[in-house]
Amino acid sequence: MSKIVADFFIRHALDQTRSTNDIARELAEMGAPEGMLVTARRQTAGRGRRGNAWESTEGNVFLSLVLRPQGSAQVAAQVSFVMANAVRELVAHRIPGVPIQLKWPNDVLCDGKKISGILLEAGAPSDGGIAWLIAGLGINVSTKPASRTDATALHYEGDTRSDADTVIADFCERFLSWYEKWQLDGFEAVRTAWLAHAHGLARPIQIRLPHEIIDAIFDGVDETGALLARLADGSLRKVTGGEVYFGSPG
Known about the structure:
Layout: E1 2-4, E2 9-17, H1 20-29, E3 36-43, E4 61-67, H2 73-76, H3 79-94, E5 100-103, E6 107-110, E7 113-122, E8 125-126, E9 129-130, E10 133-139, H4 164-185, H5 187-195, E11 204-209, E12 212-221, E13 227-230, E14 236-239, E15 243-246
Parallel strand pairs: 2-3
Antiparallel strand pairs: 1-2, 3-4, 4-10, 5-6, 6-7, 7-10, 8-9, 11-12, 11-15, 12-13, 13-14
Helix pairs in contact: 3-4, 3-5, 4-5
């Protein structure tokens, strides 16, 4: 293990693992402090939101961070926006002039193509809060998934100088800045920055819930991070889950 960027982080670097989130969870359950950072050069069973597989080619970033924020699981979920803001800044710095947008609830897009995804997993709640939060992150640096035409990587967008380690260090610095801002000032500043780069804002969306399909307009996110869907009758509905399709469902 080695410390990087600031005393907040303690890096646990692996050559290969099934999933950095799995290792981070094991460490969290054993009492690992906030700031434990698990990274891997390769994952054999990386995953994204809703159990989707995350292709984990060497040369890209795969990391999971142990956090112990105060508050409810709903409050802890705001860390996804904290991470997204940090990644957006990172990508925009490396490929200036290319539009970088944030897609609710957990993706970062580069010129409309996915370059990064975020996965949060929380420990069992206790005393009104959560035991721990694992913040997982994948960033395509050198390659993109062969099976995806809607994905890209830093190298594909013209940044051929970055490598996984420099991107991890940059992310950690930017994340810590946003994380401290969120803890000190609350969610509003994080939310405002996120909305300034929100994908599909004021455009049609379709939300697929287990027993319902909602067609609406994406009206932003509320003070908790829930998606605001404006229905045909003008009313707003808050959405915290389901499959969300921007534009034409696919």
